[in-house]
């Protein structure tokens, strides 16, 4: 069993860079190992990652007379471009996680300044306090628009936000033992507490959330709807439940809701919010067994919560550190040969695409953010075919993960990404800048290519032989002359394509 003081191997460090960022570029790996010193430990590396300087990224859509659809396309492609260049990969990976957690569709919001403000809010909050974070998101205009908060008034109740707050953003519909975390009456009363909220904005200026007292639902006005009391049968509060108006009725009620949610206990007597978010982060950073955790996974969840103090402080950084130093985080880093029980996770399409661009040095060109090669497609076109358009998750439930990413059409879209990248002669793909082209031994060339992509430790002996056979035309050649332009532009480019299409590159 390892812990924060466990010494890291070079393969471990590469794994951390793949999972918390966008791959292990050899130069970055060398710098990182130098910073870690002679005895690199899990805790030391986690501390370096968590010490990232803040980067609060603003989406940059068109303004003026541009259509909202075009604004979204430009903002999406600029976001991907920023991911290929930024120096804060962990923050970027966490923003992607919470973009899925608080899934918001711009096709519903239809106002890019509002969406841009939400993405900035995610950047600001991902290393902070989760209770504060959720409180901020309860007032987030994009999420309000997505879930009909402005339509929820004393005169026209709307339960949409109240239901998703419970089901998706905090508690989950059921706890880890399969018992319900809330009732329909809880949804109704929480929706009443959120009534009267809306936002004011325009295509140019963003003015934020507003509360209208005259639109707020009060017990006095609607006694037939019952008192604003929640969790009388769940949450560990007893039959008296918790009153939403103990601090008075009005704008303060949504903060009262947040306070109560973080006091909620599941049927095991554990913090419901802490268990749910920790489970989801473990699935994101580790593997899919946490989608439906069994006893072993539940034990890990509780251990990480206890180690980080998350259920008491709600601070996210210690929670991340506890995950990044735990054995379970390194399970998917297992070295080949792999077996049918080896746990791996499928990279998200955006993770796969951005990693490929960063490690090959290919830039998205022109203001349209195009890969200049192959189909000459822009970032949005590539990612939409692969099943992930940022700013447009399929629903409030976010994207389906892991094997859902491997539908045949989506997998083909990934292969097209690799094809276009190796064809990007004028887009920056220069293999001779990535490996030593004086190498002539086919095996050494394969190793160098895999190393430049940060996965040399993940390539099985069988796959390595396939790549060698490709280079040598099934053994017809004993050496490879990479100084020959034709060999360079066919065999070496092709080898990069094969490796980037391989399971070793597709999976964590």
What does this structure look like?
With 508 residues, this protein is mainly alpha-helical. Among the domains are: 69-261, no CATH class; 272-333, no CATH class; 431-506, no CATH class. Helix content is 49%, strand content 3%. It is built from 24 helices and four strands. Strands 1-2 form a two-stranded antiparallel sheet. The longest helix has 18 residues, at 68-85. The two termini are 21 Å apart. 46% of the residues are buried.
Could you list some keywords that capture this structure?
508 residues, mainly alpha, two-stranded antiparallel sheet, 4 strands, 49% helix
- Tell me the β content: under 5%
Radius of gyration computed on alpha carbons: 25 Å
> Quick one: biggest sheet?
2 strands, antiparallel
> What is the global morphology?
globular
Strand order of the largest sheet: 1-2
**End-to-end CA span:** 21 Å
Helix segment tally: 24
Query: Overall mean pLDDT score?
Result: 94
Give the gist of this structure:
This protein has helices at residues 10-20, 26-36, 42-50, 68-85, 89-101, 106-109, 112-125, 130-138, 141-146, 160-170, 184-193, 253-261, 272-285, 295-308, 310-313, 316-324, 349-360, 379-385, 408-422, 431-434, 442-452, 461-472, 485-500, 503-506; strands spanning 197-201, 206-211, 229-230, 242-243.
Itemize the secondary structure elements and their pairings.
Elements lengths: L9 H11 L5 H11 L5 H9 L17 H18 L3 H13 L4 H4 L2 H14 L4 H9 L2 H6 L13 H11 L13 H10 L3 E5 L4 E6 L17 E2 L11 E2 L9 H9 L10 H14 L9 H14 L1 H4 L2 H9 L24 H12 L18 H7 L22 H15 L8 H4 L7 H11 L8 H12 L12 H16 L2 H4 L2
Antiparallel strand pairs: 1-2, 3-4
Helix pairs in contact: 3-16, 4-17, 7-8, 8-12, 10-11, 13-14, 13-16, 14-16, 17-19, 19-23, 21-22
């Amino acid at each position: 069993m390892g812990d924060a003081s466990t010494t890291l191997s070079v393969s471990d460090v590469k794994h951390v860079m793949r999972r918390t960022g966008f791959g292990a570029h050899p130069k970055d790996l060398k710098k990182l190992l130098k910073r870690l010193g002679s005895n690199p430990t899990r805790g030391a590396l986690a501390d370096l990652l968590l010490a990232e300087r803040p980067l609060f990224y603003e989406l940059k859509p068109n303004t003026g007379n541009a259509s909202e659809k075009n604004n979204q396309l430009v903002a999406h492609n600029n976001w991907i471009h920023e991911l290929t260049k930024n120096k804060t990969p962990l923050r970027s990976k966490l923003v992607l996680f919470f973009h899925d957690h608080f899934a918001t569709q711009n096709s519903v919001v239809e106002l890019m300044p509002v969406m841009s403000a939400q993405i900035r809010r995610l950047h600001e909050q991902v290393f902070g306090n989760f209770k504060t974070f959720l409180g901020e998101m309860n007032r987030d205009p994009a999420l309000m628009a997505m879930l009909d908060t402005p339509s929820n008034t004393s005169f026209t109740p709307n339960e949409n936000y109240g239901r998703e707050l419970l089901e998706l953003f905090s508690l989950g519909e059921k706890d880890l033992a399969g018992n319900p975390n809330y009732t329909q009456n809880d949804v109704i009363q929480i929706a009443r507490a959120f009534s009267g909220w809306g936002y004011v904005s325009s295509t140019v200026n963003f003015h934020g959330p507003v509360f209208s007292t005259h639109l707020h639902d009060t017990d006095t006005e609607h006694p037939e709807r019952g008192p604003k009391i929640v969790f009388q049968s769940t949450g560990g509060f007893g039959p008296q439940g918790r009153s939403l108006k103990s601090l008075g009725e009005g704008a303060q009620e949504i903060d009262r809701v947040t306070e109560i949610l973080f006091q909620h206990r599941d049927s095991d007597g554990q913090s419901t919010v802490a268990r749910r978010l920790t489970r989801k982060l473990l699935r994101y950073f580790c593997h899919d067994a946490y989608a439906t955790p069994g006893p072993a996974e539940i034990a890990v969840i509780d251990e990480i919560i206890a180690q980080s103090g998350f259920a008491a402080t709600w601070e996210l950084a210690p929670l991340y550190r506890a995950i990044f130093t735990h054995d379970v985080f390194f399970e998917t880093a297992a070295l080949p040969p792999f077996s049918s029980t080896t746990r791996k996770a499928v990279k998200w399409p955006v993770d796969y695409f951005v990693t490929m661009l960063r490690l090959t040095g290919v830039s998205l060109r022109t203001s349209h953010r195009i890969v200049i090669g192959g189909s000459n497609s822009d970032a949005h076109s590539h990612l939409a075919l692969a099943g992930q358009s940022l700013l447009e998750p399929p629903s409030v439930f976010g994207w389906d993960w892991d094997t859902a990413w491997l539908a045949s059409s989506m997998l083909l879209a990934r292969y097209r990404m690799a094809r276009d990248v190796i064809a990007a002669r004028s887009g920056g793909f220069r293999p001779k800048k990535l490996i030593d082209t004086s190498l002539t031994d086919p095996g050494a060339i394969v190793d160098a290519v895999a190393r430049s992509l940060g996965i040399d430790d993940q390539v099985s002996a069988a796959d390595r032989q396939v790549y060698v056979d490709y280079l040598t035309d099934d053994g017809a050649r004993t050496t490879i002359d990479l100084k020959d332009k034709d060999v360079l532009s066919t065999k070496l480019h092709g080898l990069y394509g094969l490796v980037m299409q391989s399971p070793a590159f597709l999976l964590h």
